[in-house]
């Protein structure tokens, strides 16, 4: 039998239920603060605390209701969104900003105001009334409520479209600061980049501001691109990522995959694969990684986002790291008779009679190549196993068609990798011997690359 609850626990439970029951009122009072621009009013007085009459005098109304405003401010103070100071001389109370209200400022680089207006708009809140219906009948709450899916609805409603894009843009501006600090090296060797589902281009604008060498494309549905501002160094392209994605060295996708089911994500990922170069192409995904047992600052809101994805999209969800791994593996193209295996060649290479390494070893130092080759050696049969290495064989003094370009590749390897290089025949010989391959044969072709067949005995 369950131990009886103490009356203290029971009362605490009751209080929590009242809190949950009215948490929508907290959202509404926050939205009201944004609509009345209360944080902006205080901020415009040099950020110093001001009286309620000063706040009221700046509200866009001929006769604001002071008792109403007082009670709204009292709740906002209680929620730590503003501070209040009651002067000991009995003078008027003074209201100030906190670290929370700074996120409510309009037009600031770190503002969540447009997102608050979007998420608390009746059009976005109405589908939440359908949760129970969706459990019983299935379906998408947004579609049940508004008669069409979110992106289609936005394409038909310019006001909603603008509000949605503004909401996304403010979050993109915030995230871009974190990305430009935490991922600044990630953009270094990218010549061109396409932001897929990039909205009106806020994120890509920040990327080119910090990395002006990048040729950037902002790609989104035509009704979104139609409202995008001109941005220096950014080309806007309208289209459908399920059809085709513009080519670039890298695809960037922020909060796109969480809008879609696994099946749809795999379709998008396959189009990403087609859009980037086979070698050195990359896809940068900025999205939630759900931490079911986490207690980090954003772990709880990850679950709320998951619910919002369920309500507003056709199969979107937030995913754990394991789910991401599975999805990304499935995003690789499928060829008959080929299985994809994720792993680390420095750790272990799957067993086979023969291995093919095209343009792998030139990315690595001699030391690393020897580690890879030793793992190759373990993966093939001790007798009659072979490794086909497709690489440049340098002829520093040669005057063949590809000899000069070989040297250019060598300097590219030097610039882009950690001590990778192109190698002469003698260097290959030495490397193969140290890697456990006593015998090899070089097959030259009328091409930049040669085949170096290395044998296990
Ligand atoms: C959640 S928003 C993210 C916007 C932006 N990446 C950001 O984080 O600020 C999803 C974006 O995907 C776009 N989108 C939806 N379906 C699309 C499609 N089939 N092709 C291209 N973009 C699409 C939407 O128009 C929207 O701008």
From TrEMBL:
Sequence ranges assigned to domain O-methyltransferase dimerisation in this UniProt record: 18-106
Against InterPro entries, the record matches this protein to:
COMT-like (IPR016461), COMT_C (IPR001077), COMT_dimerisation (IPR012967), SAM-dependent_MTases_sf (IPR029063), WH-like_DNA-bd_sf (IPR036388), WH_DNA-bd_sf (IPR036390)
For this protein, the parts annotated as crossing the membrane are: none
Q: Name one GO biological process term.
A: isoflavonoid biosynthetic process
- Which residues are the signal sequence here? none
Known Pfam families for this protein?
Answer: Dimerisation, Methyltransf_2
Keyword Nuclease on this protein? no
Alphabetically ordered keywords of this record: Methyltransferase, S-adenosyl-L-methionine, Transferase
For this UniProt entry, the molecular function terms from Gene Ontology, in alphabetical order, are: O-methyltransferase activity; protein dimerization activity; S-adenosylmethionine-dependent methyltransferase activity
Q: Which residues form the O-methyltransferase C-terminal domain?
A: 131-330, 336-437
The superkingdom of the source organism is Eukaryota
Regarding protein family, the annotation reads:
Belongs to the class I-like SAM-binding methyltransferase superfamily. Cation-independent O-methyltransferase family.
Record's protein name: O-methyltransferase
**Source organism of the structure:** Dipteronia dyeriana
């Amino acid at each position: 039998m369950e131990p009886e609850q103490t009356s203290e626990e029971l009362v605490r439970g009751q209080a929590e239920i009242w809190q949950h029951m009215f948490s929508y009122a907290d959202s509404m009072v926050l939205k009201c603060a944004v609509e009345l621009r209360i944080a902006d009013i205080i901020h415009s007085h040099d950020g110093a605390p001001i009286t309620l009459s000063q706040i009221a005098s700046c509200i866009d109304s001929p006769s604001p209701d002071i008792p109403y405003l007082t009670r709204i401010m009292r709740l906002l103070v209680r929620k730590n969104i503003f501070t209040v100071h009651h002067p000991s001389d009995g003078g008027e109370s003074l209201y100030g900003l906190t670290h929370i209200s700074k996120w409510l400022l309009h037009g600031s680089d770190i503002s969540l105001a447009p997102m608050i207006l979007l998420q608390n708009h009746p059009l976005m809140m109405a589908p939440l009334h359908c949760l129970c219906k969706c459990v019983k009948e299935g379906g998408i709450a947004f579609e049940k409520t508004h008669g069409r899916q979110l992106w289609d609805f936005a394409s038909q409603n310019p006001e909603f479209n603008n509000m949605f894009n503004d909401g996304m843009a403010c979050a993109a501006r915030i995230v871009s600061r974190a990305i430009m600090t935490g991922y600044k090296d990630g953009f270094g060797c990218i010549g061109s980049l396409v932001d897929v589902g990039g909205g009106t281009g806020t994120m890509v604008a920040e990327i080119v501001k910090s990395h002006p060498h990048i040729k950037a494309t902002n790609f989104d549905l035509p009704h979104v691109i139609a409202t995008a501002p001109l941005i220096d160094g950014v080309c806007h392209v309208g289209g459908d990522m399920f059809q085709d994605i513009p080519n670039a060295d890298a695809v960037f996708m922020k909060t796109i995959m969480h809008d879609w089911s696994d099946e749809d994500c795999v379709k998008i990922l396959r189009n990403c694969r087609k859009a980037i170069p086979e070698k050195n192409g990359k896809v940068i995904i900025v999205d939630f990684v759900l931490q079911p047992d986490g207690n980090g600052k954003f772990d709880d809101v990850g679950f709320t986002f998951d619910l919002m994805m369920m309500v507003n999209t056709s199969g979107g969800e937030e995913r754990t790291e394991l789910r991401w791994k599975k999805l990304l593996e499935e995003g690789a193209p499928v060829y008959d008779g080929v299985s994809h295996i994720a792993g680390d060649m420095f750790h272990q290479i799957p067993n086979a009679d023969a291995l093919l390494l095209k343009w792998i070893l030139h990315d690595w130092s001699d030391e690393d190549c020897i580690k890879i080759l030793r793992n190759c050696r373990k993966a093939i049969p001790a007798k009659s196993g072979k490794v086909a290495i497709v690489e440049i064989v340098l002829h520093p003094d040669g005057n063949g068609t590809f000899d000069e370009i070989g040297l250019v590749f060598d300097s590219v390897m030097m610039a882009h990798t950690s001590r990778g290089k192109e190698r002469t025949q003698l260097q290959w010989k030495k490397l193969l011997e140290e890697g456990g391959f006593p015998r090899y044969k070089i097959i030259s072709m009328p091409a930049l690359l040669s085949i170096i067949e290395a044998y296990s005995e």
